[in-house]
Amino acid sequence: MKRTSTIIMGMSALCIILLLYTSSNVLAREEVHTNEVWISGFDDPVGSHWSTVIVGDDTDINGSSSSGQAHYDLLGEELEWQLDAPLDNDTWIAVNNLAYPDLPDDYDVNSEGFYVSHMWGDTYQQRADQVTSIHFDYNVNMPNNMSDYTITSASIGAVVNATVHANDPDNGGIEVPGDSVHQAADYDYIRYYLLVSDLLKDKVYEIAYNKTSNLGADARGVLDTMSDTLMVPVSEENLIFFLTSVLNTNNYNFTLTVGILIFAEDNRDTDRDYFDDVFVKNVSLSFTYQKKMNQLTTLSWKGTGNSLNSTNVLIRDASFEFSYKIDVPWPTSDSPNSEFRMFINDKQISETIKLSIATPNYQSANPDGYNVTSLISLDENITVSIQVYIGDNFELSAPIRISIDNAVLKLSYIVILPDPTPTNLRPYIYSSAGLLAALATGIGLYEGIFKFPAQIRTVRTLRRKIRRGRSSKPIHGNDSKTIGRNIFEEEKRLLDKSSRKLQAQPSKKAAPKKDTSSYKDVSPPEENKIPEKKIEGSE
Amino acid sequence: MPRGFVVTKWTDTDGLIVQLNYPEELKVDLDDMMRVFYAHITGAAEAGNVMVRLEKVQSNVASYFTGMDSPTPFMINLLLELGEDPDMFGEAVIKDINETILKYLRQLGTSISANYEVVKKLKQYLKNALFLLERLKYLTKEQLLAQIFYSEKGRKILELLRERAYSKKQLQALLEEALNKIITNLDITIDPFVKSGLVKQDWIEGVAEVFLFLISDFTIFRSPAIHLIESAKSNLPNTFLAEKYLEEVKKFFADYKPSEEDNLVLARNLTNPDKFDYLALLRDKPYPLNKIPKGTDEGALDVANLLSVMEKDNVLKIIKDNKNVEWVFLLTDIAVRPFYPEYMLENVRKDQQEGIIKKDTAIKHLDYLEKVYYDFLEKKEK
Questions:
Q1: Does A474 fall in a domain?
Q2: A235: pLDDT confidence band, cut at 50, 70 and 90?
Q3: Percentage of chain A surpassing pLDDT 90?
Q4: pLDDT tens profile A99-119
Q5: Which residues of A touch B350 (CB under 8 A)?
Q6: What pLDDT digit, counting tens, does each position of A468-486 carry?
Q7: What is the pLDDT of residue B297?
């Protein structure tokens, strides 16, 4: 590195001498350009030198233009989903409840609802189906990818009813607390419930239920009927959580299950329990969901202008400005960190503009214009980008339009045009030009390559090759374990070195006079001390 | 902040009953506990962990069950706020706490007075554990790295990201396959990686997924306590102790070679905020055992037990001086050294050439590796 610097310094000195020598004989002509508009926006329609780039979730934001303005359309929305499944056996598939696989005697789905009927008797064909259950599954297919949405409200409702034998002298009936029985613990009951689950049923959540408690009391007579009754739903917050959970497993599909369980306890010597008509009359489920805006998503409006040649152009000044507005106030409390970011030749201007300060009327980003002289790159197309950066994850229930206009990049620069040169000066001119070129190459090599550490040069070379689609040779480097071991060995060497030094000292030598007061006064106040005691296992 | 603990047990005669809860004013709904219990016993009813959301108390529960085969099937439930997840504290820490609680529960017998003492000690432990969990939310960078290393999930994520950048979805799938368990909230799991600067999250143009790029790596090992060694070289705290201390350090490091097993011990010491406090304290100077500060009042810490464990782990050494006074020395410091992952360059190159990763992913990763190198360089120069 030192050698390179020395060569460059030497060449510079030589060039300066030669230039001084020839400067009296060669005259250059300057062409001054002041505040030349290099890139501007936006005409109607927006010119082809403007384009949009989205990085991140492209369902969050969209670029558009109209009436000579460029827009950033944040695609917020709130949608509603409602259960709309016909009541029939093709839509609702009857499946076993794996926990209680015995099926009731009869079950069906028809326009009246989900129907079950069952009879159990302890002397009737010695049946074991005391607990029977049936599930009716409906696979919901969402119209949207729910990983892009947040459920914000939800509700569930279901109506149930039933008719059972209560106290039939010939055929028995349902026993509930208060009835005369020989034995009882749980009595007879019907349990209705609704479940949501992922398709594989790894996650199953109960979202509403109803359990009969006194249906079939003897006092009601031969038959007892429970009129239309609502199921008890879980809280809205839990319903939202359960729906979110199952939709996390599969972003489009989940299963809604209507479950009916009949529990017939053996309460008498010749017990017979008739559950004549058990209905879940209807089920309603609905929820609203809002679009998620994803942090780090960006949309840039990028303008591309002509390039300038570095060999004969000097940039004196560059300024950039634009105006912006928003159609509705920015949701600052949900996303305080979203902002405009501006780039010149892909280099970011240090200032940003928070979207929270945007108003419905156009305002200038910087009335004096941003000074971007140092960001202009020569020998490549000069570009400007005005980027909307989403700085937080949040939900957006309605679209927001952010607009920009009056984007202007102005350049002031000098073009150096040499006069035709006299023939007798050609040798000097050529040698100066040659040396200048060598100097420029040297400086270029130093600035572009050699001033950077070897590791950075390797990264850049590799990146360049990948960008150009070229193959590259393997890069030798240590793996994680080896690097870790090397760091340890290095630190261990320090200890060895230090202990060797120590061994060189005579061990019985009197200790140097040193202030040891800090060791005498280390104890905390008495009340904070722990009693002196032996640490278990310390020996 | 975690709300508290509820310990329940299953008996054949009474079913599920609450053994104890801490704090005592914590309301426990037996129906909710049954839900947690059902979540455990669905399937093989084996020992293990589940995470359940409880309706009535509006709480998340990180629950550990000893299994129906255990002599007394206990269920240890840590009640968290709805937004909290056990991963925020590190799965290993929760595991340690559960093991300690079980240790106490197994001491319970038929003697009422003995049980009273055990329960008293257990409640004190639960109080400390809650305080510890609260402190775990505020870790230093070296503690965050140790937390990553101490957790099986953290080590696996590190191993995967050392190969290449993955999208969150890819990482979650690989992780679930490797660990054979469902990852409920990857964002919380990777939070220490982001906070400690190991990983950068970013989008790739044209791909609607967030990718995770490893931009820094780290190693853990025992290192000499430099400050104490320098002091000992100046015969501090006194010639006798200084010589003994240096002898012990030399003896230890003569045979010491880092190993994953030992590094896990070190990580456990670092992630425990109480142990970390003593480590930091003893880095400066040794203390006579009877004058060592007690720590904060809130924790009501069992310092003797804590130091004893640290001594067993060869982090501390108790040395008696010529007046038979015991001094606590840091035998080995714990070094957590971040380093530049130079091996990533070859991985990126190879993956891109073989078409495993896209060109844009490779370029984005190299952009980050370039930026982060200057940080390492700056730290090295300092």
A1: no
A2: confident
A3: 58
A4: 888 999 999 999 999 999 999
A5: 474
A6: 999 999 998 899 999 999 9
A7: 46
Looking at beta carbons, which residues of chain A come within 8 Å of B234?
511-512, 514
Please give, rounded to a whole number of angstroms, the shortest distance from the CA of A442 to a CA of chain B: 23
Let me know if residue A19 belongs to a domain.
yes
- Mind listing the domains of chain B with CATH numbers? 4-135 (3.30.450), 141-216+340-381 (1.10.10.10), 219-336 (1.10.10.10)
Are residues A530 and B335, on separate chains, in Cβ contact within 8 Å? no
Q: Is B85 on the interface with A (CB under 8 A)?
A: no
Q: In this structure, which long-range contacts are made by residues B38-41, counting pairs with CB atoms below 8 Å and at least 24 apart in sequence? A: B39/B63, B40/B65, B40/B75, B41/B65, B41/B68
Answer whether residue A500 shows pLDDT above 90: no
Q: A300, A483, A486: which to substitute to probe chain B, counting the most B Cβ within 10 Å?
A: A483
**Mean pLDDT score of chain A:** 84
pLDDT recorded at residue A515: 39
Provide long-range contacts, Cβ within 8 A and 24+ apart, for A462-466.
Answer: A462/B345, A462/B348, A462/B349, A462/B366, A463/B362, A463/B363, A463/B366, A463/B367, A463/B370, A466/B349, A466/B352, A466/B359, A466/B362, A466/B363, A466/B366
Q: What is the value of ipTM here, to two decimals?
A: 0.83
User: How many Å lie between the alpha carbon of A223 and the closest alpha carbon of chain B?
Assistant: 33
Are residues A213 and A299 located together in one domain of the fold? no
* Region of B67 on the Ramachandran plot (φ > 0 left; ψ -120 to 50 alpha; else beta): left
Q: Are residues A376 and A457 in the same domain?
A: no
Split into its structural domains, chain A has a count of 3
Query: How far are the Cα atoms of A244, B314, B328 from residue B311, in angstroms, in the given order?
Result: 48, 5, 9
Residue A131 sits in which domain range? 87-293
Q: Give the integer Cα–Cα distance in Å for A319 and A342.
A: 12
**pLDDT number for residue A179:** 87
Residue ranges with strand state E in A88-217: 93-95, 106-110, 113-121, 131-141, 149-165, 189-197, 204-211
Q: Looking at the domain assignment, is residue A530 inside a domain?
A: no
Three-state secondary-structure class, residue A170: coil
Whether residues B224 and A491 touch (CB distance < 8 A) is answered with yes
Domain CATH code at residue A305: 2.60.120.200
Q: Do B342 and A478 touch (CB under 8 A)?
A: yes
pLDDT exceeds cutoff 90 at A403: yes
Q: Are B373 and A459 a contacting pair at CB < 8 A?
A: yes
- Asked if residue A527 is part of any domain, the answer here is no
The pLDDT of residue A150: 94
Give the mean pLDDT of A443-454. 69
At A96 the pLDDT is 93
A153 and A249 together in one domain:
yes
Task: Report chain B's terminal Cα–Cα distance, integer Å.
Answer: 38
Phi-psi region of A199 (alpha: psi -120 to 50; beta: other; left: phi over 0): alpha
Residues A158 and A274 in one domain: yes
Q: Same structural domain for residues A160 and A140?
A: yes
**Per-run averaged pLDDT (10 residues), chain B, 382 residues:** 91 87 86 84 74 77 90 92 80 87 90 88 90 85 92 93 95 91 81 92 85 96 91 90 93 91 94 89 91 63 84 95 92 95 96 94 95 85 70
Instruction: State whether A347 and A430 are in the same domain.
Output: no
Same domain, yes or no: A403 and A323: yes
Q: Report chain B residues whose CB lies below 8 A from the CB of A507.
A: 243
Do A37 and A185 fall into the same domain? no
The Cα of A491 is separated from the nearest Cα of chain B by a number of Å equal to 7
Cβ-contact A362, A405 below 8 angstroms: yes
- Does A297 contact B353 at a Cβ distance shorter than 8 Å? no
The residue behind tokens 């009601």 is: A220
Residue A517: what pLDDT? 37
Buried b vs exposed e over A151-187: b needs ≥16 C-beta within 10 Å? beebebebbbbbbbbbbeeeebbbbbeebebeebeeb
